[in-house]
Amino acid sequence: MKTLSHITFILCVFSLSACNIFKKTETPKTGEETAQSTVITDRKWKLVELAGKPVADKINGKEPFILLQSKDNRYAATAGCNGLGGEFSLQAYGRIKFTLGMSTMMACEHMEIETELKRVLNTTDNYSLSGDDLSLNKARMAPLARFKAVK
């Protein structure tokens, strides 16, 4: 009887430990990788989609981007023509608010992209981050603009 209970106990231990064999282990991220994957400031973000439409890599010879600077809560952006700037504020739960500031006032081709980016910055009230993808959103609607982190 004791032998049967010992065998049962050993089988239970083996079966419980076997469950851990198939668990997928994650590679731990370094502190820098974790910080980079959850922080939107002090990173250059390339504009890839605006109002659901893809944006060209270069517009008028310039890469469209936005840079959010944590030091003074200012941003710098371009949509291929004029330089845009202003202030932003981050709040809990992914809330963000942009205040348009100064802008150069050149006339270029494809001004509709710049006009739309200004509208997006005025309208945006939250953001979402998924890896190297940043989306600027209004409420729970489809993203107004999507950006990719520039390495």
Q: What is the averaged pLDDT score?
A: 83
CATH-defined fold name: Lipocalin
Supply the number of helical segments: 3
Judged by helices, strands and strand pairing, the structural class is alpha+beta
Secondary structure: helix percent: 25-40%
Structure in a nutshell:
The chain is α+β, with helices and mostly antiparallel strands.
Describe the structure.
The chain is of the alpha+beta class. It has one domain: Lipocalin, CATH 2.40.128. The chain is 26% helix and 34% strand. The protein has three helices and nine strands. Strands 1, 2, 3, 4, 5, 6, 7, 8 and 9 form a nine-stranded antiparallel β-sheet that branches. The longest helix is centred in the N-terminal third of the chain and has 18 residues, at 2-19. The radius of gyration is 24 Å and the shape is elongated. The termini are far apart. Mean pLDDT is 83; it is low at 20-37.
Task: List the main descriptive attributes of the protein structure presented here.
single chain, 151 residues, alpha+beta, Lipocalin, 9-stranded antiparallel beta sheet, 3 helices, 9 strands
Show the helix and strand layout.
Layout: H1 2-19, H2 31-38, E1 44-50, E2 53-54, E3 65-69, E4 74-78, E5 83-91, E6 95-103, H3 111-123, E7 126-130, E8 133-137, E9 145-149
Antiparallel strand pairs: 1-2, 1-3, 1-9, 3-4, 4-5, 5-6, 7-8, 8-9
